Amino acid sequence: MALIAINLLPLSLAHAQSDPIYDQGEALYINPGRGGCGQCHGVSGNEPVMPLYPKIGGQSEQYLYNQMIDYREKRRKNGLYIPMEVAMQPFNDEEIRAMAVYLAKQRVF
């Protein structure tokens, strides 16, 4: 039994360590003063407040990054593009990357 506990210790320690990019992404994503993403998509990105808002948690990091950049640069046009263009304006590329990291690591339903 002790051998099992010793073998699991590195896993527990690795999981407990914080990822600064993830933490930054979480803070930016949830911050209602900037984009307020969590207010529409939910804290994990998978609890939209309206059925027409997409579930974005667990999507590919690169996909999420590209979509947010395209909204910010006004290159993506769909039914919800205007509020997304506004929501993405305050963020630079590194901040968008951090939010993509956070969202990509969320559970998928």
TrEMBL record:
Coiled coil: none annotated. Gene3D superfamilies: Cytochrome c-like domain. Keywords: Electron transport, Heme, Iron, Metal-binding, Transport. Residues 20-107 form the Cytochrome c domain. InterPro entries: Cyt_c-like_dom, Cyt_c-like_dom_sf, Cytochrome_c_Oxidase_Subunit. The keyword tRNA-binding does not apply. The keyword S-adenosyl-L-methionine does not apply. PANTHER family: CBB3-TYPE CYTOCHROME C OXIDASE SUBUNIT FIXP, CYTOCHROME C4. This is Cytochrome c domain-containing protein. The lineage of its organism: Bacteria, Pseudomonadati, Pseudomonadota, Gammaproteobacteria, Vibrionales.
